[in-house]
Amino acid sequence: MDIEARAAVSSWIEISEERLAANYLALAEAAGVETQVLAVVKANAYGHGAEVCAVALARAGARWFGVNCASEGARVRRALDAAGFAREGDADAKVLVMCGAGSDRGPADLAAIAEHRLTPVVWTKQQVEWLRGSGVAAHVEVDTGMARQGVRAGAELDGLLDAMADAGVEMDGILTHFASAEMTVSELTQRQQQRFEAAVAQVRERGLRPKWVHAGSSSSVDNPAQRGGWLAGLAKTVGARAMVRCGIALYGYCLQIEGGGAGGPEMCAKVRAALRPAMTWKTRVMDVREVAAGDTVGYNATFIAPGPMRLALLPVGYADGLRRELSGTNARPGGWVMVRGRDGSEQRANIVGRISMNLTVVDVTGVDATGIQGVRVGDEVVLLGDGVTADDHAGIAGTIAYEILCGVKTSR
After folding, report:
1. 24 flagged as catalytic
2. Are residues 69 and 206 in the same domain?
3. Residue 387's domain spans which residues?
4. Candidate list 46, 251, 253, 299, residue with the active-site label
5. DSSP string, 177-243
6. CA atoms within a 13 Å half-sphere pointing along the CA-CB vector of 366
7. Annotated catalytic residue 46
8. What pTM does this model have?
9. What is the chain's Cα-based Rg?
10. 272-328 tens-digit pLDDT
11. 106 and 249 housed in the same domain
12. Exactly one of 42, 94, 211, 282 is catalytic; which is it?
């Protein structure tokens, strides 16, 4: 017997191409004409959909895209090619595989990298050996203080460059990553800059001329203490162009800039004022009911109705990425959603009781105050978007907007 399974759509996301483009252009303006912005679409574009976002950002002018792995890069490349962003030579859209290749998948990754015109990041001799004879150019990552990926300047870097020369692997770029890019005054960042300068000088002394020198993230663009031409000036020492890798800001969010010194603790107002969340996560009301004073709501009765209330049931929960920490009790308010009232206005509806695996209850007592008809079964509800952001969720859940966005799961 054939069984046809149809998954009910309990929630969905909508991505604003207009906002994505505006965010990219704001970052490009802040980075300056001498610096290219690489659009990071790894981790499925922070939960937004890598293929959709890459094409939208390419339409806005992006020509470099950062992915996690070769398989993700292949999906992005296919989407870009299908949308007409395949060009000859240097005009081709570039896809950087930022997290390298693992020891158990190197040969397979190489096949995907070569087939889909990807640019790998390398820092070990083994990774270089996998590229031998492939004609694939690579970017070399330098570890300046993260102790994650990267080769250290000095003997380690010399050894890697020797291996690249022996394998015939061209160095298209050199990069590092800052651990505290959101700090206006950071001795660690200063040390990292000095170490990266030493690595670039080492490359220059060997007569190598990469096309790209890149460091930094969204916070590096947003942080007034890290602008001012340092990276562009460093790139010029090897005849290269500077590049910054922007991720979270493309989607409308940034970490708070912290510390004193240039810019103080304030956010970079011009950049941040232009950023708008690109994702709206929605669901629909599946039930509406009235409860009396003293009625309990949810597991362990953590919320007790203080009076007559109208409650709406939503078909989403922590299995979908709606964090359990957003649960609301009588003693501690939790998160909220946005419900459209009969007058068309968006109004808050607080989460009451514990968020379940697939269900959440919200208080719609005050929405239009027109009885149970104020909110109806089938009405759209905004879980994330205007009026309730990933920063709002993160503040309650004790985490960062990155984790909130990456955790959204829908029935797409």
Report:
1. no
2. yes
3. 279-406
4. 299
5. --S-TTBSS-HHHHHHHHHHHHHHHHHHHTT---SEEE---HHHHH-TTT-SSHHHHHHHTTT-EEE
6. 7
7. no
8. 0.91
9. 24
10. 788 999 999 999 999 999 999 999 999 999 999 999 999 999 999 999 999 999 999
11. yes
12. 42
